[in-house]
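Hey L., structure's done. Input below.
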Amino acid sequence: MVAQVKNYPLGIYTFKDIVEGGYFYVDKTGYVHNIANKYRYVFLSRPRRFGKSLLVDTLQCYFEGRKELFAGLKADELEKDWVKYPVLRFDMSSIKSMNPQEVKSSLSLMIGEYEKVYGRNEMEVTLGNRLEGVIKRAYSVTGQKVVLLIDEYDSALLKVMHNKPVFEELRDMLRNFYGPIKICDAMLRFGLITGITKFSQLSIFSEINNLTNISMLPEYDGLCGITKDELLTLCKPDIQTLADKQKISFEDAVAKLTENYDGYHFSKGDDGAMTDVFNPFSLINAFSARDIGQYWYSSGTPTFLFGEMRKYKTELQNIEGRVAGENEFNVSPEVAVSALPMLYQSGYLTIKKADTITRLFTLGFPNKEVKEGFLQSFLPMVSNISDDESNRMLVRVVQALYADDIDTALTEIKAYIAAIPYYYENKTEPAFQTIMYLILTLLGQNMRVEVPFAVGRTDAILETTNTVYIIEYKVDKSVEEALKQIDDMHYADPYLADPRRKLKVGINFTTESRTIESWKSVKL
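Output:
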């Protein structure tokens, strides 16, 4: 039996179009009713393409009293009055320029659209004055308090975060623009501010005394995204259709979707339990294409993150499994002392484990899609070698390893590292370790790096059909020292009963030649 195919809202972020068009929709209107009636001002941080804009649009329809759109949905059960409020909505992601004057012009045009409806006083010159005037007149004309929705407030700032003079100019401009929120408090019914990060929240919105950050509250884990429960109850036909196309079982399809798109945790949970959340953008694209692919990552390149990692000299191999207190990663990047806040808040790291006693959190990549996409983009950034050449090298290394040809594989890696320009920082042990970590990790799911053992951890273990490679590398030492460490630390012990051939591989890198100098493989 062929499962019924749904219409998927690819590129559609308006609540009206989705419900009237009969598109696939996971009902989040119960959350909408809750936050609209529980709070005055709300701040929500979620990664890009996680449904923030759809949430904002749904709130706009709710506050405009468009009851007909909510028929059969949770909000229709809960709401009794359906009051129509004037709604002012500002989508900051629509501002594409990094020039402060052009940003100011874009904001001016946004305010101008509401001034056409509610009028304008020519004495109002600044952006803040004009917004204040619009709020006051909307309140006066309609007799109802005003709803203010600000989507992706940090969009313009993220583009210039490493250009301090421009960043400060934009921040001051936005502070002026948002200033009326406190001044007009008595005339505002509700306010929602969304963004990727808590970036500049302190300095821009510091005057809002009762702004509630719900980003890490357990009850709103499922506000954006699709939870595991929602996947298994609402998406069964979609999963089956995907499974049929891929010629795998329903259970295997769930496992692949989970491996690639699940794993986001937005709170410490109750008693350490956390709600699994799937990336909705990737999930819907996978259902539409009936294929597992890198959808979310390919929709944007995190160049600003690479800048943060360079700024703080972040060692890539140490970010996964990092244990940190909440004040280390859930803070504004303005007061951050590492790249963790940007990596976490933008969705490249998530909470993997929470200890409610110590209040410490273990961070890691949420899923395979994010990890592989991030590392694939990071390798050309640290090597200054093109994506195409980097990918070709990885393919050649994989082919050699699966042909049990370790010498050819390491020759390819040696040549790749030797081609890195002299002005790139690959002279140090950490730099070499980062490059090797990237290359080895990207070789595939059977390669594990920084593998922990009872008395230490080996640099890498690769398992092919016929061979287990136990790899240790040194810098400015010798391959014999690397091989000795494998023996001394008993890295091979877990594989003693494995029928496959076992090779221990020692590699030595020299800072003088700035590449692999020598290697040696010994059969166990």
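The mean pLDDT is 89. The two ends are 52 Å apart (CA to CA).

-- N.
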